[in-house]
């Protein structure tokens, strides 16, 4: 029996629940409102030197300016037959973002066209929906499931950890709710915030699984070892797990999380999701890329150009090894039968592009630690597009394989 088969057998004996099943104390979430009838309206924000309270700390600034902007948004909504639902500042890109509900009697496209005519409106757009791209599969560290991890063999993870463990590199996991109290994840986070309209205290499967692959503790005698176990993760909930199974996100929740990640200097941003193009998210991601932050996203061949945001310039697009005939810009990483953390202190096998993204996110954290914060990330790949983790981290040559390159690096010798 293979290690992965043995792992699956052990999980069955231990009674670990499948990803799609409810875990004790877990409450699955639906969005509180029908987002198909909502639009985003971006009001132009005055330049910082004209704004009272311009230093942004999560609020609009002074109360008078906040009230004035909301009155303006309410007036635009009222004159166009819309309902003002919510508002959120996006000072990084110079706008205030408001959510407005379109009545059933009006087409969403018509509402967008109407509000866009107002001189105070920078642009308007639909509230898009995104879906996470992961699903369940029915002298190494002393973590018992380490040898079942694909990266343990394919990436020689124990050897890579001799060079770097992601120490002090900040990683934003923008996903569903992470079980930050999981024994393999407790103490691994510097932030734990919820940007979804209806909040939950319970961990959700997708985000918890992604976080485990990225940064589960290593050498603690339980579970698995993350690719970057000493990284500092941000648990940013922008997605929710539905009763039907899929994990969904929308434009506004993702934008809120992205703005937080950028403002708080996340060096790597994990977006294990895909969906339609979105101008608000595109501007935020372009800003992240311009600041030399690494944005990693899931490639979905069923969507135009592999989906958004993987199609954006500067975004590192990743797919798992089950996909064939991928564009040259897409990297392949482990994403099949991967053991990882699950809510309620459990572990299970997962499949999907989401988890391939998590592998590359962790690897980039290793590269940033080893190469310095200002390093320009350039992943090496093998024939067929699979990421060459060792070459990416330490470099190899025809006369010096991975082991040789690591020994040379540890000895302080040049490549």
Helical fraction equals 25-40%
Shape: elongated
Distance between the termini: 39 Å
The number of helices is 11
Provide the structure class: alpha/beta
**In percent, how much strand structure appears in the residues?**
15-25%
Total strands = 18
Describe this structure in words.
There is one protein chain. By secondary structure, the chain is an alpha/beta fold. It contains 11 helices and 18 strands. Helix 5 (157-163) packs parallel to helix 11 (402-410) and helix 6 packs parallel to helix 9. The relative contact order is 0.15. The model is unreliable at 11-33 and 49-61 (pLDDT under 50).
In short:
This protein is α/β, with parallel strands linked by helices. 29% of the residues lie in helices and 21% in strands. A seven-stranded parallel sheet has the order 8-9-7-12-14-15-16, with helices on both faces.
């Amino acid at each position: 029996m293979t290690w992965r088969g043995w792992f699956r057998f052990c999980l069955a004996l231990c009674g670990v629940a499948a990803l799609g099943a409810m875990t004790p104390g877990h409450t699955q979430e639906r969005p509180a409102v029908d987002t198909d009838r909502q639009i985003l309206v971006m009001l132009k924000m005055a330049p910082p030197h004209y704004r009272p309270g311009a230093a942004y700390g999560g609020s609009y600034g002074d109360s008078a300016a906040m009230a004035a902007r909301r009155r303006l948004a309410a007036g635009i909504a009222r004159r166009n037959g819309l309902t003002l639902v919510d508002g959120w500042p996006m000072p990084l890109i110079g706008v205030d973002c408001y959510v407005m509900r379109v009545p059933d009697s009006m087409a969403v496209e018509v509402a967008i066209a109407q509000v866009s005519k107002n001189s105070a409106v920078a642009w308007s757009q639909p509230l898009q929906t995104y879906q996470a791209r992961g699903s369940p599969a029915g002298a190494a560290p002393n973590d018992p499931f380490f040898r079942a991890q694909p990266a343990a063999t394919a990436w020689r993870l124990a050897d890579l950890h001799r060079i770097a463990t992601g120490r002090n590199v900040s990683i934003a996991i923008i996903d569903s709710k992470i079980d930050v109290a999981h024994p393999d994840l407790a103490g691994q986070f510097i932030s734990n915030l919820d940007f979804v309209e209806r909040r939950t205290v319970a961990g959700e499967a997708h985000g918890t699984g992604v976080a485990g692959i990225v940064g589960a503790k290593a050498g603690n005698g339980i579970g698995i070892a993350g690719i970057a176990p000493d990284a500092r993760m941000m648990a940013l909930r922008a997605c929710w797990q539905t009763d039907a199974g899929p994990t969904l996100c929308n434009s506004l929740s993702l934008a809120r999380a992205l703005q937080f990640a950028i403002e708080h200097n996340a060096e790597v941003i994990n977006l294990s999701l895909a969906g339609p193009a979105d101008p608000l998210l595109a501007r935020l991601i372009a800003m992240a890329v311009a600041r030399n932050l690494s944005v990693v996203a899931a490639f979905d061949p069923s969507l135009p150009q592999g989906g958004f945001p993987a199609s954006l310039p500067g975004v590192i697009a990743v797919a798992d090894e089950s996909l064939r005939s991928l564009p040259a810009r897409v990297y392949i990483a482990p994403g099949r039968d991967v053991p990882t953390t699950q809510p309620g202190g459990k572990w299970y096998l997962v499949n999907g592009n989401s988890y391939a993204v998590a592998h590359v996110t962790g690897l980039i954290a290793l590269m940033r630690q080893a190469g310095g914060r200002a390093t320009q990330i350039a992943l090496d790949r093998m024939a067929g597009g699979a990421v060459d983790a060792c070459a990416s981290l330490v470099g190899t040559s025809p006369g010096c394989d991975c082991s040789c390159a690591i020994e040379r690096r540890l000895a302080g010798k040049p490549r």
